[in-house]
Design a protein that fits this description.
This protein is α+β, with helices and mostly antiparallel strands. It is about 25% helix and about 35% strand. The chain has two domains: about 30-230, outer membrane lipoprotein receptor (LolB), chain A (Clam), CATH 2.50.20; about 255-475, Ribonuclease Z/Hydroxyacylglutathione hydrolase-like (Metallo-beta-lactamase, Chain A, 4-Layer Sandwich), CATH 3.60.15.
Length: about 475
């Protein structure tokens, strides 16, 4: 009789698990029915609000900077699956602080079974997308309190191994969907959509307030004024084929050019400079991604063999200019960055990277940071690197640039992004004039600029290009 007890307990446990899964499936079915989601093949949402530039904060303590949208229409085809966003942006606030490009008028997202799951989230984290995914995945049921209200929580595991959880209220409306994605800077990064103020549009319940968050701050805040289900989506596939969104794909492999004895420009964009100092290599900028950081490191060791990278200089903490730093830290390099980043890199580099482990998360190298206030000079008697703060920047509170007086070369980020070809006109940008003002203020003898956003044609960028861009703006 004693030998049969474990079998009975196992059967009870199995029944409980199956019952929980069935309850979760029943809840998903009830929510789909209550929301009218079962009939939704496409959805078109129109409204207005704000989009925010993830990872482009003015300083480590401020939220992602926003762009006001006069109107925004999101059309989603769940069967394709595909998404189109059409926007009309408001006039930018000239006092806006922070980075990021103003969202383009139109954007299309085409996904398939080969598209990385995080790229698909704008489709599958909608109420109708989540309920579709929950219906076809193994789900569990739990409960949670949010804003003082009790919710039933349906959870499944996404292809990136992160949990995806939907909070369903007593009215069977979906109030929130949350998951995690990998960010080279933040590691396992919270990503959520919150839905409220549901209204009926042609038999489909639609949230008229949508807030998306990545990390600690919102990336989208939309108020929906109109919604249409099952309209013709007509979202064209990408011209080049494949399933990645426009601009997808990894960075190109690096190549290098000699700027002087022991000084190497590493291209293509995002660009960096390596300087061969007596006691170790100094790399100016660790941008873009862990992959790009590792590529730059490999190229540096080809150009300057048998010597460690002692320092990596960081122009500013925007994610596209600092997401390669972890690769350098894993190599043992010390970060040189702005005083405004005090404690910032130590804090975020300690965050877990379980979804996409990198070398630093595996070797646990100590994060070493040295800070720059207004100026710092590195020299070994042969090479000199001056680091200066960009005074008056609205792009980033701690924006720095590096100047090599012997080579008359200045590396900068986001103050002057020259056009792709020499015969194209640079778009007017007040940051251009600010950079030139700072060069003149410091009486720097600059002949060559190295924009981290290096032009596509790979040309040498002279100081005259910057002067021309500033002069053109002043005459407009």
């Amino acid at each position: 009789m004693v030998k049969k007890i474990p079998i009975v307990l196992a059967l009870v446990a199995l029944t409980g698990l199956n019952g929980g899964a069935q309850d979760a499936k029943s809840l998903v079915s009830a929510a789909s029915k209550a929301m009218g989601a079962d009939q939704v093949k496409t959805i078109q949402l129109t409204g207005s609000g704000m989009e925010y530039a993830f990872g482009q904060a003015y300083n480590p303590g401020s939220p992602w900077p926003g762009w006001k949208m006069k109107s925004e229409t999101r059309t989603i085809d769940f069967d394709a699956p595909a998404m189109r966003i059409e926007r009309v942006a408001d006039t930018p606030d000239p006092a806006r602080k922070g980075g990021g490009l103003q969202p383009g008028a139109m954007q299309q997202l085409i996904v398939n079974e080969n598209t990385p799951w995080p790229n698909q989230l704008p489709i599958w984290l909608t109420p109708y997308g989540f309920l579709r995914q929950a219906a076809k995945n193994d789900v569990t049921l739990g409960s949670a309190t949010m804003g003082g209200k009790q919710y039933r929580v349906v959870t499944f595991t996404a292809p990136n191994k992160a949990k995806v959880s939907g909070y369903i209220g007593a009215d069977n409306m979906l109030a929130k969907v949350e998951t995690s994605i990998d960010s080279p800077m933040l590691g396992d990064t919270p990503y959520s959509e919150t839905y409220s103020d549901y209204k009926d549009f042609g038999g489909v319940k639609v949230p008229t307030h949508i807030v998306e968050r990545q990390g600690d701050y919102p990336t989208l805040d939309l108020t929906i004024s109109d919604a249409k289900a099952n309209v013709a989506a007509n979202i064209a596939p990408p011209q080049r084929g494949g399933g990645a969104p426009a601009g997808g794909g990894g960075p190109q492999g690096p190549s290098s050019q000699k700027l002087g004895d022991g000084v190497f420009l590493i291209m293509p964009a995002y660009a960096a400079i390596a300087v061969d100092m007596k006691d170790g290599i100094v790399v100016l900028e660790g941008p873009q991604s862990t992959m790009r950081g590792e590529q730059i490191i490999a190229e540096v060791h080809k150009d300057i063999p048998n010597k460690p990278i002692k320092y990596v200089f960081n122009t500013h903490n925007h994610f596209d200019h600092s997401s390669g730093l972890r690769a350098f830290v894993a190599e043992g390099a010390t970060i040189i960055t702005s005083q405004s980043n005090k404690g910032y890199f130590e804090k975020i580099f300690a965050r877990p990277h379980t979804l996409v482990p990198d070398k630093l998360s595996q070797n646990h190298a100590k994060v070493k940071v040295e800070l720059v206030a207004d100026k710092r000079v590195l020299t070994d008697g042969v090479h000199t690197i001056e680091i200066h703060k960009t005074q008056g920047s609205l792009h980033n509170e701690g924006l720095l640039f590096a100047y090599l007086p012997k080579e008359k070369v200045l590396l900068e980020a986001d103050s002057f992004n020259p056009p792709a070809t020499a015969d194209a006109a640079a778009p007017p940008n007040p940051a251009n004039a600010l950079l030139l003002d700072n060069i003149n203020r410091l009486k720097l003898d600059v002949e060559t600029l190295v924009p981290v956003h290096y032009p596509a044609d790979g040309r040498k960028v002279s100081i005259d290009e910057l002067k021309k861009a500033v002069a053109q703006r002043s005459t407009n």
